[in-house]
Write a structure and sequence with these properties.
seven-stranded antiparallel β-sheet; 4 helices; 195 residues; alpha+beta
């Protein structure tokens, strides 16, 4: 009788072990990327990589694609993709310095329409972070020949986050602050960023 129980126990362990191995084998692993892979406009370091790993959906590989050039009023933008689908975008736009309250209202309306949970934080003229990303509106130029006065910077999680809502919002705020600081410096702004 004792041998029978030992055989059942060993057999059960083998089945469980093989099941766990097969589950790990077939699950998609988190893709490997480092500081050198991340777009310049996130001013990448180990902490940026850690925050990205925290929020990006698990995929076998990620493609980091920069669009536009530094010093350009149109960017640079950063797209993080998997198999052609955008997982996250970082957008930097130089604007005519429209009213900060109107900008914040549009951001909140957008986040509310997406069903994202959001909160405010102090940065620039104002910042908002949510489970769908983060955005900051900050001063840039006092006088600019093209009338550009402010920067609008956003980090958008296009396919959601694998982190809990609180961690997602914190990571989004961190990432958008990094992008905003980079953009402000890169643009050569003459007004303080208030970051």
């Amino acid at each position: 009788m004792r041998r029978k129980w030992v055989a059942v126990a060993v057999g059960g362990c083998l089945v469980v072990g093989l099941g766990l191995y097969a589950g790990d084998f077939f699950d998609e692993e988190v893709g490997s990327f480092g500081v050198q892979d991340v777009c310049e406009n996130l001013d990448p370091d180990r902490e940026v990589v850690e925050k990205l790993r925290q929020v990006l959906p698990e995929r076998g590989e990620y493609d980091f694609y920069a669009e536009g050039s530094t010093g350009s009023k149109f960017g640079p933008y950063c797209h993080i993709r998997h198999e052609g689908k955008n997982l996250m975008t970082v957008l930097i736009n130089y604007t005519d310095g429209s009213d900060p309250d109107a900008w914040l209202k549009r951001q909140v309306e957008r986040k509310t329409a997406e069903g994202a949970r959001f909160g405010w934080f102090k940065a620039g003229y104002g910042g908002v972070s949510s489970t769908g990303g983060g955005a900051i509106y900050l001063p840039c130029f006092k006088d600019h020949p093209e009338g550009l006065g402010s920067l609008s910077v956003s980090v958008n999680l296009r396919q959601g986050s694998r982190a809990a809502p609180k961690e997602t919002k914190a990571a989004a705020e961190f990432l958008v602050r990094r992008a905003a600081a980079f953009a402000h410096k890169d643009a050569g702004c003459d007004l303080p960023s208030r970051l």
